[in-house]
Specification:
The complex is a heterodimer of chains A (247) and B (190).
Chain A lengths: L9 H10 L1 H18 L10 H50 L7 H38 L7 E2 L4 H20 L3 H19 L3 E2 L1 H13 L2 H12 L16
Helix pairs in contact in A: 1-2, 3-4, 3-5, 4-5, 4-8, 5-6, 6-8
Chain B lengths: L2 H9 L3 H23 L2 H18 L9 H19 L11 H6 L7 H6 L2 H13 L3 H12 L4 H8 L3 H23 L7
Classes of the chains: A mainly alpha (247), B mainly alpha (190).
């Protein structure tokens, strides 16, 4: 350990080595062996090695960051829902407190319970409005594209993954809340969003046409528009004629 | 751009900044990985895994610290994990070095010593390193090549300081048993 200066009394050992031929010979032998070990070659890696490492790594980092963003989106969606429901509960509790309980007949209590559920449903609809609007824009982009030239969705990949993550949360919440209509629209929407998220690069004309047909056959855009309009309190859109309208 | 500024940009999500860090530090990480694993492909895998972990943990990196030291430590842990996963950490290679010497792995014939080519000598050194157990090799590499303090080596291997010292001591003794015949001819020049 003296060689690495890890001994407890290096000065005393150094002094001993000066006066003791046997120990000095031993120590020098160790030093020569360790010098030999220093000759152990390490295979050369060229100047471009760092670049090679990066090229292999960036694919893995890409999926890492996408996964991280998807989780962040899902967490954000869940947090928004939690806050919204909590606000709904508070709003309802406040309204109930303002009504004298003695006045409430059994029929009145039932009405209050219905009003409570209605308030929570409205809260759920409000928080999914943005999600539906974003999904609608994405569907329109696909539906309005000229399929005969193929469809490049490489720039939409990340956004589609985020929408898939949000959609799952909202669909599960709608199911739990018993909002079957919203849950059904979100269930129809999800596989299409997943399909868009799974597109790597450009769709061929046939693939693009198949995706458009899938959106069209389910009347997905119309369903999304209707529920989105109801959520934001707008008038329900008219049933579209054949073909897709623009934003 | 310094590592400090580059790390700062990488933490803000700039992929080009992280690329710069990878390109700057890949070579030294490969060297320590190779010395610990003794295998080129394993060393390449360790380099990849090291930067992947660094990317995941970059938010935990303290900007005042040295990025090279930090990523070096990650590399050592990656190499240890790889050795553990293959059951190589506590395994001895090639049996007893004394047996290897007796069986002719290291000749004591001066005539043969003189004929020994440097390439063969390097092979003998590599073989001597292979004969160390995984713990001995790791402790030795960290102390001899990396200059890591014994206390740090103990922490890295999860052993006490005295045990770390003893592991290094055993490694040096084994290397000496394997390689002393090759330096014997010049031993009289003290």
């Amino acid at each position: 350990m003296h060689h690495y200066h890890d001994d407890e009394s290096p000065a005393a050992i150094a002094q001993h080595l000066q006066s003791c031929d046997v120990c000095r010979a031993e120590y020098n032998s160790i030093r020569r062996v360790l010098a030999l070990v220093d000759e152990l070659p390490v295979p050369e890696r060229g100047e471009g090695y760092g670049e090679q490492v990066w090229n292999r790594l960036r694919w893995r980092l890409g999926s890492e960051s996408r996964r991280r963003r998807t989780w962040q989106t899902a967490l954000a969606a869940a947090a928004v829902l939690a806050v919204a429901f909590f606000a709904g509960q508070l709003w309802n509790a406040k309204n109930a407190a303002q009504r004298p309980s003695a006045v409430l007949s059994p029929t009145g209590q039932q009405r209050a319970a219905v009003a409570h559920e209605g308030a929570q449903d409205r809260v759920l609809l409000v928080v999914v409005t943005d999600h539906l609007d974003s999904s609608e824009r994405m569907l329109l982009q696909v539906a309005n594209a000229d399929a005969s030239r193929g469809l490049d969705l490489s720039n939409e990949h990340d956004r589609a993954e985020e929408l898939v993550a949000s959609n799952r949360i909202y669909r599960q919440t709608a199911t739990q809340r018993g909002d079957e209509r919203l849950a059904m629209v979100l269930s129809d929407l999800e596989p299409v969003l997943i399909e868009i998220a799974h597109v790597e690069g450009k769709l061929s004309p046939d693939e693009a046409a198949a995706l458009q047909k899938r959106i069209d056959s389910k009347g997905l855009l119309f369903k999304v528009r209707v529920i989105s309009a109801q959520t934001s309190g707008q008038e329900t859109p008219a049933i579209p004629q054949k073909g897709i309208t623009s934003l | 751009m310094t590592d400090v500024a580059t790390v700062s940009r990488a933490r803000a999500g700039d992929p080009d900044a992280f690329r710069l860090l990878v390109e700057r530090h890949s070579q030294p990480i490969f060297r320590v990985a190779y010395r610990m694993t003794g295998n080129e492909h394993d060393a390449d895998d360790v380099v990849q895994e090291t930067f992947l972990r660094a990317y995941r943990q970059i938010d935990k990196f303290e900007e005042r610290a040295n990025f090279g030291t930090w990523v070096h430590r990650i590399a050592v842990n990656c190499a240890l994990d790889l050795l553990r996963s293959r059951g190589r950490l506590d395994r001895h290679y090639g049996g007893d070095p004394e047996e290897a010497e007796m069986s002719g792995a290291a000749s004591s014939d001066p005539q043969q010593d003189r004929l020994l080519l440097s390439a063969e000598l390097r092979e003998q050194v590599a073989a001597a390193m292979e004969r160390l157990s995984g713990n001995e090799r790791t402790a030795f590499v960290l102390r001899h090549f990396e200059g890591m303090p014994v206390e740090e080596i103990g922490k890295t291997l999860g052993i006490r300081v005295n045990a770390a010292k003893h592991t290094i001591f055993r490694a040096v003794r084994k290397l000496r048993q394997s390689l002393e015949p090759f330096v014997r001819s010049s031993a009289c020049n003290i």
